[in-house]
Amino acid sequence: MSDSKLKVVVCRDLGPDVMPLLLNNPRLDVVVWPHNSACERKWLLENARGASGILVMLSEKVDEELLNAAGPKLRVVSTMSVGYEHADLKALLTRGVRFGYTPDVLTDAVADLSVMLALMAGRNTKETTEAWPNFVWSPFAFCGPQLSSTPTSPKRTAGFIGFGRIAQATFARLVPFGFQHCLYTGNAKTAPDPAADAALAAKYGVKEVRRVELDELARESDAVFVLAPGGPATYHIVDEQFLRQMKKTAVLVNTSRGTLVDSDALAKALHEGWLYGAGIDVVEGEPQVGLDHPLIKAPRCVVLPHIGSATNETRLGMATLTVNNLLGGVFGEEMPAELGTSR
Amino acid sequence: MSDSKLKVVVCRDLGPDVMPLLLNNPRLDVVVWPHNSACERKWLLENARGASGILVMLSEKVDEELLNAAGPKLRVVSTMSVGYEHADLKALLTRGVRFGYTPDVLTDAVADLSVMLALMAGRNTKETTEAWPNFVWSPFAFCGPQLSSTPTSPKRTAGFIGFGRIAQATFARLVPFGFQHCLYTGNAKTAPDPAADAALAAKYGVKEVRRVELDELARESDAVFVLAPGGPATYHIVDEQFLRQMKKTAVLVNTSRGTLVDSDALAKALHEGWLYGAGIDVVEGEPQVGLDHPLIKAPRCVVLPHIGSATNETRLGMATLTVNNLLGGVFGEEMPAELGTSR
């Protein structure tokens, strides 16, 4: 019966809570990259041969080469990520290979991190966490802009570049901080929908949810959140021109993809004070981010190692969903989150 | 006419936006500590002589010695802080010296910081902000407990030691993170008030606001916020016994006074994993906090330099209120926030 087993290749060990879903399945022949590091390309191409399913991380390119190496038995590629800029969707479609990903399950974790980074940028934790033991207290030491509204500064506006699930979950968290205004940029292919905006404003109990052009968003926002997909359409959408229009008291948060923000322009902006601070979880060119990277050296800039979804609950949920997508694809059944069919 | 001027002593320069309120008043003789550091005691005692008003920071002890040095003309002491553990209220009362402080105005700034520290503790920013360039990504690297609720972990409980204005403002911010349960410890001198609790739960749209004993709060909370006043009644209220009862996935936040938390016990708890992480803005014995302090060396512990109210908007508001309290007291008029009369 061993011949009838279906081969699946798994590019990362997903731990003792999730791997048994694969390893204990008698219909599967499971091949797992054996190291705690990114899967080597050579190993992946060799082991993909004859596979019915491949489970990848963001680090594995899913392209013609890999699909050719796997051959005609391949039915599904399942990625443990909500983004899929590492996958050639056209090549998958041409071959009839299904593709699974992990939307929704990480929404709250990334929204949490987005709020945290907005707070950390304003409170300048890059310096304040390192203040002990040598600093002199004074009435205005360490003071930056306050995220919350105050009686003397009552208006707070959040600006979202991209306004999907994560952006909306982030805004929901900002409402009790006094954010009554929500601006966002929309996909150029779709028309503005004032009725939907009004419905959202009512849902959140705020004065305004409104689609605007990028320039107005830059000018009006106290906190700008970059939450659009990566890829050519959004490359360096936050550039020098955008940053020069921001309020001097505003903060910029990027928890989507590094390519959306021009790192050199942001570093220059922070050095020259065009905006107050930045909190970024993603950097163009990561993981090649050395201590001499302009954003690591920039003042009032917090740089995290892409941990948006890194909580126990969420990563467990992502890993489980990734495996269930793989199983659904391999056995020709429904996949819980298949790209193109799920919403 | 110079003889009729009233002397006021100001222990810190409050900057160009606020000092003119004093310096431009022709009825005042204003003496200002001339350095950007804590006011020296010797200077204060000498200059206090004959003063009608003294404006102090948390760093200045307001005791018999200072009141005696000032003498019988003293009408008011005004502190730029919401806390007043540095002031001998009985000695002030005995002499009929009024006392001003700065409640309310810093509520939102400290609530912001409390939420930030809960997030930073759970996301272990002590390590994650220092991760570049040397770390290995893996599916569960950097993972800790998620502040937000998730479908597989839907219950979140916030616990407040002290449930005044700042605690309630902090809880309001946590509601969209999925916190449906709010526990708090009350002042032993007051009776529980279930009707008031139910009204608060309705206001926040949550399942539960409930006064509990300290042990239950320790056991049930996913995030514990220490927000009670300092002083003997709350000294080391968070001790080894409390910490041993906390959830291993919980975080502790202290944004009130360092004396409420036993630093050695907290460091031990973090090393041994009794709780997940801690975010503290105040440390017993501050500002004597060296790099060998047990909490600076403890894992998953963020230690900030007492910046709860340190935003431009709030410190400006506090400084203005402190000056207005001083003016009201010196001229025998209403003080905007006088202890004992304001709420």
Topology:
The structure is a homodimer of 343-residue chains.
Chain A lengths: L5 E5 L9 H4 L4 E5 L8 H8 L4 E4 L7 H7 L5 E4 L9 H7 L2 E3 L6 H16 L2 H4 L27 E6 L3 H10 L4 E7 L8 H11 L3 E4 L2 H7 L2 E4 L13 H6 L5 E4 L8 H10 L4 E4 L13 H4 L3 E3 L8 H19 L13
Parallel strand pairs in A: 1-2, 1-3, 3-4, 4-5, 6-7, 6-9, 7-8, 9-10, 10-11, 11-12
Give a concise summary.
The first copy, chain A, is an alpha/beta fold. Chain A is 33% helix and 15% strand. In chain A, the strands form two sheets. Chain A has a seven-stranded parallel β-sheet with strand order 8-7-6-9-10-11-12, with helices on both faces. In chain A, strands 2-1-3-4-5 form a five-stranded parallel β-sheet, sandwiched between helices.
Provide an overview of this structure.
Two copies of one chain form a homodimer. With 343 residues, chain A is of the alpha/beta class. The first copy, chain A, folds into two domains: 123 residues, NAD(P)-binding Rossmann-like Domain (Rossmann fold); 197 residues, Rossmann fold (3-Layer(aba) Sandwich), CATH 3.40.50. The first copy, chain A, is globular and about 75 Å long. Chain A has 13 helices and twelve strands. A seven-stranded parallel β-sheet of chain A has the order 8-7-6-9-10-11-12, sandwiched between helices. A five-stranded parallel β-sheet of chain A has the order 2-1-3-4-5, with helices on both faces. At the A-B interface, α5, α6 and α13 of A face α5, α6 and α13 of B.
